[in-house]
């Protein structure tokens, strides 16, 4: 008899069912794991400031807001560049158009961010609100010259909403490797934005 | 016993060991004992401790700054040596009719392949475990068991179940443990190589001890699944038997990961940025050693039963 063949009596007849039971138990465990992951990632804490409210992810580091920023939170567990959400409340002229607000923001970004390049821009509707979406990329490197780290390539996404004499900008920055996978969580954050 | 056939080759059977029938040739090979098993096993463990000690001292004295090819080579060497020693250690425990070395090596490689092709990408790139698992203690335990534990243990189970399990060489319950530990060590080798490379070769001294413990733990938890697999092949078991074995191994694996992660996390303080890998390793080692003891006890109980039944048969 060939060494790789199996005498039919050596495997108990119910074992094929047990095979499927093992796969089923593993799938159920992984589904439960996925639910746990989603439950942890949807945990949030309320934020309110300057008439704007949002649900920010729980466990993220809140850094001091600069300039027109009213919220700046970063995921401490991200690898590479930490995923970041920023809300800005920029004063604009009462009769400004979204295009003007976008131009202003683009100029600011171009001056502040290294190798800033716009990838795409379009008018969109975000959860029922008219907005302008700008997708871009920039490079983030440690300003300390003694650090021998490779700079991070960061992808960004701005949503610009006009609200009277202010433009509200919701920003998402993430390491290019994590951008797509973390986008869903940012969209939940965006959905919670009220002004 | 005219209707009985050998469970290994299918020829007419002449004797029964446990609930299995064997022909004369396979009855003899299934109960042939290997001498000096304990002495050789202890020598292997001593060798492993000496290896870890030498690497630790070299790191302490030389502080090697490894990059590129040197780093990868060091990672492969540090991962392979403990895995190889544990592989021989578990192989020696199968005192009755050792398994073909080619099969053991094949299952080891299959475990490694499944880890790098499915296990690690699933844990890191699909579940993004490192991003959420440390949110709180309950999440860490649940994530360690449901995601990390089940993925790792299922792949080690699959490496045995869908390769050597139907073969005639898998001819005693203990073989399940032997092959599963080989798959576990293959899996551990890939995890350890990934660990060295991801950390840029930092702190090789403490890393080598971590690798020894991870290899032991991965092998031991796989051994639990292997024990259930082995018995399921030769005894009539209920449908829940094998899922229960896999769940038990996944829970042990998850608790091991949780204990190690928890203590390392607590080692970070506001006044010190360094982690304390030793405390985590001590707790994780206790869990791994307990599981190893359980596996060894199960293996030797199987062997004693087989030998006693042969004497009764004679």
Q: What does this molecule look like?
A:
By secondary structure, chain A is of the alpha+beta class. Chain A folds into two domains: 8-38; 45-191, Protein Transport Mog1p, Chain A (3-Layer(aba) Sandwich). Chain A is built from three helices and nine strands, in the order αβββββαββββα. Chain A has a seven-stranded antiparallel β-sheet, sandwiched between helices. In chain A, strands 1-2 form a two-stranded antiparallel ribbon. Chain A is globular, with a radius of gyration of 24 Å. Residues 1-10 of chain A have low confidence and may be disordered. Chain B is mainly alpha-helical and 314 residues long. Helices cover 75% and strands 2% of the residues of chain B. Chain B contains ten helices and two strands, in the order E-E-H-H-H-H-H-H-H-H-H-H. Chain B has helices at 24-30, 37-62, 68-93, 101-126, 129-132, 137-161, 173-198, 204-234, 241-266, 277-313, and strands spanning 15-17, 20-22. In chain B, a hairpin with a 2-residue loop joins strand 1 (15-17) and strand 2 (20-22). The two termini of chain B are 15 Å apart. The chains are: A alpha+beta (195), B mainly alpha (314). The A-B interface holds A 1, 3-7, 9-12, 14-15, 17-19, 21-22, 24-26, 29-30, 32-34, 36-37, 40-41, 43, 58-59, 75, 77-79, 181 and B 5-11, 125, 127-128, 130-132, 134-135, 139, 142-143, 145-147, 150-151, 154, 157, 161, 166-169, 232-243, 246-247, 250.
Short description:
The complex is a heterodimer of chains A (195) and B (314). Chain A is of the alpha+beta class and 195 residues long.
Give helix % range of chain A.
Answer: 25-40%
Question: CATH homologous superfamily of the largest domain in chain A?
Answer: Mog1/PsbP, alpha/beta/alpha sandwich
Largest interface: A-B, 37 and 45 residues
How many H/I helices of chain B? 10
Percent of residues in β-strands of chain B: under 5%
Terminal Cα separation of chain B, in Å?
15 Å
Any idea what the radius of gyration of chain B is? 21 Å
Cα Rg of chain A: 24 Å
């Amino acid at each position: 008899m060939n060494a790789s063949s199996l005498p039919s009596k050596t495997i108990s007849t119910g074992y094929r069912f047990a095979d499927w039971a093992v796969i089923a138990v593993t799938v159920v465990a992984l589904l439960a794991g996925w639910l746990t992951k989603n439950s942890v990632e949807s945990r949030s804490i309320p934020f309110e400031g300057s008439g704007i409210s949002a649900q920010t992810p729980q466990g993220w580091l809140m850094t001091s807001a600069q300039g027109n920023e009213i919220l700046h939170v970063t995921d401490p567990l991200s690898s590479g560049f930490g995923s970041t959400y920023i809300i800005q409340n920029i004063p604009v002229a009462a009769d400004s158009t979204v295009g003007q607000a976008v131009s202003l923001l683009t100029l600011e970004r171009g001056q502040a961010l290294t190798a800033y390049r716009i990838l795409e821009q379009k008018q969109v509707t975000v959860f029922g609100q008219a907005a302008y979406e700008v997708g871009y990329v920039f490079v983030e490197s440690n300003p300390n010259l003694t650090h021998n780290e490779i700079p991070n390539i960061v992808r960004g996404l701005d949503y610009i909403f006009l609200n009277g004499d202010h433009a509200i900008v919701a920003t998402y920055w993430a390491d290019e490797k994590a951008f797509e996978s973390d986008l869903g969580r940012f969209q939940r954050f965006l959905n919670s934005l009220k002004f | 016993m005219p209707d009985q056939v050998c469970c290994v080759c299918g020829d007419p059977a002449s004797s029964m060991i446990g609930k299995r029938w064997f022909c004369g040739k396979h009855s003899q090979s299934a109960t042939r004992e290997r001498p000096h098993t304990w002495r050789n096993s202890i020598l292997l463990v001593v060798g492993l401790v000496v290896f870890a000690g030498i690497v630790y001292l070299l790191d302490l004295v030389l502080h090697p700054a490894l990059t590129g090819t040197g780093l990868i080579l060091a990672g492969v060497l540090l991962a392979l040596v403990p895995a190889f020693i544990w592989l021989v250690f578990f192989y020696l425990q199968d005192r009755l009719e050792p398994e073909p070395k080619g099969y053991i090596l094949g299952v080891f490689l299959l475990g490694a392949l499944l880890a790098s092709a499915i296990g690690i990408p699933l844990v890191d790139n699909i579940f993004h475990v490192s991003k959420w698992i440390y949110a709180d203690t309950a999440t860490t335990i649940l994530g360690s068991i449901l995601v990390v534990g089940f993925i790792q243990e299922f792949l080690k189970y699959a490496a045995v179940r869908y390769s050597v399990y139907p073969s005639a060489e898998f001819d005693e319950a203990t073989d399940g443990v032997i092959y599963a530990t080989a798959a576990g060590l293959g899996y551990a080798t890939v995890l350890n190589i990934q660990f060295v490379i991801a950390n840029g070769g930092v702190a090789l001294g403490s890393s080598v001890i971590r690798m020894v413990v991870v290899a032991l733990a991965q092998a031991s938890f796989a051994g639990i699944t292997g024990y259930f697999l082995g018995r399921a092949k030769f005894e009539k078991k209920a449908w829940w038997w094998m899922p229960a074995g896999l769940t038990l191994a996944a829970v042990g694996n998850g608790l091991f990961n949780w204990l190690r992660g928890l203590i390392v996390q607590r080692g970070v303080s506001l006044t010190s940025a360094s982690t304390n890998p030793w405390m985590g390793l001590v707790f994780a080692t206790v869990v791994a050693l307990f599981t190893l003891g359980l596996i060894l006890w199960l293996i030797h109980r199987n062997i004693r039963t087989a030998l006693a039944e042969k004497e009764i048969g004679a």
